[in-house]
């Protein structure tokens, strides 16, 4: 919580509003300006003079984002000079989409994403995985090349699933899971914007619980989950939230995925559905591998060892987890 | 130790005796009247006695094998068994738990039978006293495991 | 335990006996006024079908209930002494009461769903009773019993799903009107199969002798008089529908064979309880076959009289086993009439009743059945099955009598035979009385007009001929002289076949499980631990891991390369944009 409540909070504020600027502006330049402000306000948030890794991460972030912005600016200038107004070209669209994909760290321009997240704290990676994706996704939805985007979606889903399989770092793992979910998000935004809002809010909700958990427990690697003597309730909470993130039916995470699959089938995208479902199986596999072995196989508990984690945020997170568990069931009350 | 047979290893004589006994039991299943059974048993004994003097081991083993075969081929489908023997109707019907189980009863359970346990504790003390009188007190070192 | 007045046995006995009296009076009242009461309680109703719990009270169900209550009350009274030193006596009595309860549910319900309630309850409780002595033998027997009965339960379940067509499960309304329906034919054949499992007819008959691992009072109540007659009772209720079916002819053949097979096997058997169980099986075959000839009231008549003397026979056997220190093998017994005259009296009378000696209970039903058999239009084979089985009944009964009463005393040299256990004897005398008079009083009561039988002299005397021959054979077979040749060894293979109930116990245990277990093992080795492991879980994991490692190599490149590749990509796009225009 350090980062949120010191003098950096002005940057947090700017980060927040820059996104609003770019998604609500009615000219491409306004969008670009918003993106630039966003970049410049996020850098102070992530750079920490005490930590070499975060400095490196901020540098990398600056490089990638500025190159992406540069290309975006380049593309809109070309559009301005070459094309008439309200006219688009396939290649131009692909160029614009590519720069946006670069900005949000989507496959095949995603290589910076796990590297940078490795140097961030949990709260910053939470921001990077959720809030920083709003602008590029919205901007991309203005002009989409469907053939290109479909390939990108499939790549996202597959790379996210397979890349995360061998990871031992929790942050990298969450980064790959974010890549996978990005595929779902691009799919949903190409179907309808409301669907995307639904998926995005659910995803941010689930990922926030996990990130805050790991932040509080100071977890960065898988083996920390095994050897630490956590409260059993905490382990169960982690398990449930992971299952929810993977999209197992009784939990809330299943709900948005269910609806997206429903829309996909309505639009006759059966192959896409197949890939989505199969790859979320692999995602579910490594989520379960983490949480299952934390509870079952490597669960050792010394009788004299008692950790009382005195943290007021636990209550908060447990409250969130409650929604993650029962949300699906409770939501039936609203949709009756 | 000599009378404890190695498992599965029997001398020829033991095998023949075993065959003889099983053949008698088989006869018992067929001939349930006592006098008839005695008559048949004598005939059986005679068959065994005829070959008792054979010293040629090859022939003896051959005969034993034939005897086993004949017993197998003529065994009674419903053997005459005592109820508590292996395969009998009342085999393991009543389970008798070993005596030491009572020592592990809960004190509340023991409280149901105060007289018995009082006497039991007394008997135990007497037994230990008797043991120590005969063999001396146990070494303190050996008590620790 | 010590106080007779307040023991659970006495209370249950009193309750059941009172219920018996009530049923008796109502039965008389119903028979006199020709009344039927049908009660229905609707549990739930879907669109057009209703699930109801229905109760049918007519003279038949009341009479059967009265007999069940009578036998169960005396059996419980009897177990007061038989199970005297039993630790879990309460459990035993409660199980018997549960059994009586499920029997009641079966008897009074004309609805196939509520029948299933009683039917399943019978299977479950009889399993619990068979494994009551918790040794290996009774576990095996219990499993065989439970699984054989389970087959019948499944058939009843299928019947329930077939009866969905009619919108209700009250089969009693459909028996006459849906007679020619194809669905009703299916239902009828399923019902016959279910009844065959419960009444241990030929493919399923191995469980009945195996169930003799239960305590003897249980055998007296459950496996001789009530449970096994449940199938017969069900068919009596369904009889209206079955009359023209091909399946009924098959049932006639199978039940005739059961009768014959059980009669022969009983002659080879040496276990006292198993002999009686096999004679039960033979009598069940008789009931089933007369039922499949379309004479349900005769089957019901024989069912009731048989229940009386068979329960008595089992109780006598129980006393003998009790006194012989758990020995059941009749080769150990002999000459016991000198030591226990009262028990021998009961034993002989019930055996005579079983053989159908005139004016005992079995005479009225058996004689009537056999005369109607010779009266009706049958082929030679069925005719011979009937008469040979009648002779065989005499045969094994006399053999049993000779072995127990007449031959030399053959027990261990230390023994304690006594005839002063008045609790057991009192309960037996009730049934003794019943097995003398029940034949005549039932025949006067339940047949509103007598059967007209018109036979030539030799056919009329046929029963007596076969009985006499059977009795003489039974006498000769159990006499053994010193120089007698052992016929058993001369026809060893045939004797083995007949002795082991036509190998049916082996076929329905090893025969069923052997191939499936082998198949299961090979499937486990080849599929579960072999191919499917490689092509699903394990192999998938290997492939995925390989891809993941392959991908991670790309992930570990220099940061500059990523940026450069992106710029090259944009450059290519830009070039294509330029040259495209």
From TrEMBL, chain A:
Q: Name one GO cellular component term.
A: mitochondrial inner membrane
User: How does the entry describe its membrane topology?
Assistant: Multi-pass membrane protein
Residue ranges crossing the lipid bilayer per the database entry: 12-35, 61-82, 147-166, 173-191, 197-217, 238-265, 271-292, 313-335
Catalyzes what? a ubiquinone + NADH + 5 H(+)(in) = a ubiquinol + NAD(+) + 4 H(+)(out)
Pfam families per UniProt: Proton_antipo_M
Recorded GO MF terms = NADH dehydrogenase (ubiquinone) activity
> Could you name the domain of life of the organism this protein comes from?
Eukaryota
Instruction: Name any Gene Ontology BP term.
Output: mitochondrial electron transport, NADH to ubiquinone
Q: What InterPro entries is this protein classified in?
A: Complex_I_Subunit_2, NADH_UbQ_OxRdtase_chain2, ND/Mrp_TM
Predominant location of this chain? mitochondrion
Q: Domain NADH:quinone oxidoreductase/Mrp antiporter transmembrane, which positions?
A: 25-282
Q: Where in the cell is it found?
A: Mitochondrion inner membrane
Q: Which PANTHER family does the entry link to?
A: NADH-UBIQUINONE OXIDOREDUCTASE CHAIN 2
Tell me the function of this protein: Core subunit of the mitochondrial membrane respiratory chain NADH dehydrogenase (Complex I) which catalyzes electron transfer from NADH through the respiratory chain, using ubiquinone as an electron acceptor. Essential for the catalytic activity and assembly of complex I. Core subunit of the mitochondrial membrane respiratory chain NADH dehydrogenase (Complex I) that is believed to belong to the minimal assembly required for catalysis. Complex I functions in the transfer of electrons from NADH to the respiratory chain. The immediate electron acceptor for the enzyme is believed to be ubiquinone.
The UniProt entry's sequence similarity note says: Belongs to the complex I subunit 2 family.
Q: What is this protein called?
A: NADH-ubiquinone oxidoreductase chain 2
Q: Which organism's genome codes for this protein?
A: Spodoptera frugiperda (Fall armyworm)
Provide the gene name from the record. Answer: ND2
Automatic annotation (TrEMBL), chain B:
Q: Where in the cell is it found?
A: Mitochondrion inner membrane
Q: Which GO terms describe its cellular component?
A: mitochondrial inner membrane
Q: Which GO terms describe its biological process?
A: mitochondrial electron transport, NADH to ubiquinone
Which residue range or ranges hold the Complex 1 LYR protein domain?
14-71
Bilayer topology term: Peripheral membrane protein
Per UniProt, the keywords (alphabetical) are: Acetylation, Electron transport, Membrane, Mitochondrion, Mitochondrion inner membrane, Phosphoprotein, Respiratory chain, Transport
Instruction: Please tell me where this protein is predominantly located.
Output: mitochondrion
Sorted alphabetically, which CDD domains does this protein's record hold? Answer: Complex1_LYR_NDUFB9_LYRM3
**What InterPro entries is this protein classified in?**
Complex1_LYR_dom, Complex1_LYR_NDUFB9_LYRM3, NDUFB9
Per its database record, what is this protein's job? Answer: Accessory subunit of the mitochondrial membrane respiratory chain NADH dehydrogenase (Complex I), that is believed to be not involved in catalysis. Complex I functions in the transfer of electrons from NADH to the respiratory chain. The immediate electron acceptor for the enzyme is believed to be ubiquinone.
Q: How does it assemble?
A: Mammalian complex I is composed of 45 different subunits.
Report the family membership.
Answer: Belongs to the complex I LYR family.
Which protein is depicted? NADH dehydrogenase [ubiquinone] 1 beta subcomplex subunit 9
* Gene (name only): LOC118277210
TrEMBL record, chain C:
Regions crossing the membrane: 7-31, 51-77, 89-108, 114-133, 154-174, 220-240, 246-268, 307-324, 336-364, 384-406, 427-447, 453-477, 497-517, 559-579
The EC category is: translocase
Q: How does it sit in the membrane?
A: Multi-pass membrane protein
E.C. number(s) listed in UniProt:
7.1.1.2
What GO cellular component is one of the record's annotations? Answer: mitochondrial inner membrane
Annotated GO molecular function terms are: NADH dehydrogenase (ubiquinone) activity; NADH dehydrogenase activity
User: Where is this protein found?
Assistant: Mitochondrion inner membrane
Give the protein name, as stated in the record: NADH-ubiquinone oxidoreductase chain 5
Record organism: Spodoptera frugiperda
Source lineage: Eukaryota, Metazoa, Ecdysozoa, Arthropoda, Hexapoda
């Amino acid at each position: 919580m350090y980062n949120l409540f010191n003098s950096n909070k002005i940057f947090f504020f700017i980060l927040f509003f820059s996104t609003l600027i770019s998604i609500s502006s009615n000219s491409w330049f306004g969008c670009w300006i918003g993106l630039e402000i966003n970049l410049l306000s996020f850098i102070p948030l992530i750079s920490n003079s005490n930590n070499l890794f975060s400095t490196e991460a901020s540098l990398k972030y600056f490089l990638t984002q500025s190159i992406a912005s540069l290309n975006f600016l380049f593309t809109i200038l070309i559009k301005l000079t070459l094309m008439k107004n309200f006219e688009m070209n396939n290649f131009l669209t692909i160029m614009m989409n590519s720069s946006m994909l670069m900005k949000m760290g989507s496959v095949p321009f995603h290589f910076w994403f796990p590297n940078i997240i490795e140097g961030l704290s949990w709260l910053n990676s939470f921001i990077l995985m959720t809030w920083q994706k709003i602008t590029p996704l919205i901007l991309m939805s203005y002009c989409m090349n469907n053939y290109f985007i479909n390939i990108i979606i499939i790549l996202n889903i597959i790379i996210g699933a397979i890349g995360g399989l061998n990871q031992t770092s929790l942050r990298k793992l969450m980064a790959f899971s974010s890549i996978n979910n990005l595929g779902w998000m691009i799919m949903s935004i190409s179907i309808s914007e409301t669907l995307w809002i639904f998926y995005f809010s659910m995803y941010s909700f689930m990922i926030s619980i996990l990130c805050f958990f790991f932040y509080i427990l100071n977890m960065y690697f898988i083996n920390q989950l095994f050897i630490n003597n956590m409260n059993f309730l905490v382990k169960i909470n982690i398990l449930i939230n992971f299952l929810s993130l993977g999209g197992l039916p009784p939990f809330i995470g299943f709900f948005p995925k269910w609806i997206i699959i429903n829309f996909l089938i309505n639009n006759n995208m059966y192959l896409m559905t197949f890939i989505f479902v199969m790859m979320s199986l692999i995602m579910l596999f490594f989520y379960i591998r983490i949480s299952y072995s934390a509870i079952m196989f490597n669960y050792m508990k010394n009788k004299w060892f008692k950790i009382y984690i005195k943290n007021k945020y636990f209550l908060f997170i447990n409250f969130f987890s409650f929604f993650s568990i029962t949300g699906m069931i409770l939501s039936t009350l609203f949709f009756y | 130790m000599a009378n404890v047979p190695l498992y599965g290893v029997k001398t020829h004589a033991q095998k023949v005796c075993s065959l003889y006994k099983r053949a008698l039991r088989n006869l018992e299943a067929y001939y349930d009247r006592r006098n008839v059974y005695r008559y048949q048993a004598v005939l059986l004994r005679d068959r065994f006695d005829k070959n008792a003097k054979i010293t040629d081991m090859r022939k003896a083993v051959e005969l034993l094998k034939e005897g086993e075969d004949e017993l197998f081929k003529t065994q009674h489908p419903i053997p005459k068994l005592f109820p508590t023997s292996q395969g009998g109707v009342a085999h393991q019907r009543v389970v008798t738990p070993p005596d030491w189980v009572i020592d592990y009863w809960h004190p509340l359970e023991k409280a149901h039978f105060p007289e018995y346990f009082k006497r039991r504790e007394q008997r135990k003390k007497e037994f230990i006293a008797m043991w120590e009188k005969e063999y001396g007190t146990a070494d303190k070192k050996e008590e620790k495991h | 335990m010590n106080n007779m007045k307040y023991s659970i046995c006495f209370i249950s006995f009193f309750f059941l006996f009172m219920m018996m009296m009530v049923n008796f009076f109502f039965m008389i009242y119903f028979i006199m006024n020709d009344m039927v009461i049908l009660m229905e309680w609707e549990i739930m109703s879907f669109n057009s079908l209703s699930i109801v719990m229905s109760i049918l009270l007519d003279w038949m169900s009341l009479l059967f209930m009265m007999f069940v209550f009578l036998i169960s009350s005396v059996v419980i009274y009897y177990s007061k002494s038989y199970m005297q030193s039993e630790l879990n006596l309460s459990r035993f009595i409660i199980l018997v009461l549960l059994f009586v309860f499920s029997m009641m549910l079966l008897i009074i319900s004309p609805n196939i769903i509520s029948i299933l309630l009683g039917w399943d309850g019978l299977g479950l409780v009889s399993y619990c009773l068979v494994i009551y002595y918790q040794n290996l033998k009774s576990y095996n027997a219990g499993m065989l019993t439970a699984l054989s009965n389970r087959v019948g339960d499944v058939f009843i379940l299928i019947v329930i799903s077939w009866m969905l067509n009619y919108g209700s499960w009250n089969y009693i309304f459909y028996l006459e009107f849906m007679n020619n329906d194809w669905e009703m034919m299916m239902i009828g054949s399923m019902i016959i199969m279910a009844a065959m499992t419960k009444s241990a007819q030929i493919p399923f008959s191995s469980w009945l002798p195996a169930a003799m691992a239960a305590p003897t009072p249980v055998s007296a109540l459950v496996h001789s008089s009530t449970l096994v007659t449940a199938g017969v009772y069900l068919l009596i209720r369904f009889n209206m529908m079955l009359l023209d079916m091909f399946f009924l002819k098959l049932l006639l053949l199978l039940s005739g064979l059961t009768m014959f097979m059980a009669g022969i096997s009983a002659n080879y058997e040496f276990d006292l309880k198993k002999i009686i169980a096999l004679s039960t099986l033979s009598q069940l075959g008789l009931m089933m076959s007369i039922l499949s000839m379309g004479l349900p009231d005769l089957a019901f008549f024989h069912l009731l009289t048989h229940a009386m003397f068979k329960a008595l026979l089992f109780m006598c056997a129980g006393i003998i086993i009790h006194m012989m220190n758990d020995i059941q093998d009749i080769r150990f017994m002999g000459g016991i009439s000198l030591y226990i005259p009262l028990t021998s009296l009961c034993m002989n009378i019930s055996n005579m009743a079983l053989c159908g000696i005139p004016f005992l209970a079995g005479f009225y039903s058996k004689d009537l059945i056999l005369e109607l058999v010779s009266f009706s239009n049958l082929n030679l084979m069925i005719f011979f099955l009937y008469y040979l089985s009648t002779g065989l009944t005499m045969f094994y009964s006399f053999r049993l009598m000779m072995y127990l009463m007449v031959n030399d005393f053959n027990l261990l040299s230390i023994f304690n035979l006594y005839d002063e256990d008045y609790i057991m004897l009192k309960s037996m005398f009730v049934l003794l009385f019943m097995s003398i008079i029940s034949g005549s009083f039932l025949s006067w009561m339940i047949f509103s007009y007598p059967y007209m039988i018109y036979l030539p002299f030799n056919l009329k005397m046929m029963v007596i001929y076969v009985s006499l021959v059977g009795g003489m054979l039974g006498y000769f077979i159990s006499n053994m002289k010193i120089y007698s040749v052992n016929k058993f060894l001369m026809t060893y293979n045939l004797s083995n076949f007949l002795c082991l109930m036509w190998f049916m116990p082996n076929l329905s245990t090893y025969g069923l499980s052997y191939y499936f277990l082998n198949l299961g093992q090979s499937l486990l080795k080849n599929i579960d631990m072999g191919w499917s492991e490689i092509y699903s879980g394990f192999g998938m994991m290997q492939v995925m891991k390989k891809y993941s490692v392959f991908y991670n190599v790309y992930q570990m490149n220099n940061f500059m390369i990523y940026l450069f590749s992106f710029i090259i990509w944009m450059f290519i796009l830009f070039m294509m944009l330029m040259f495209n225009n």
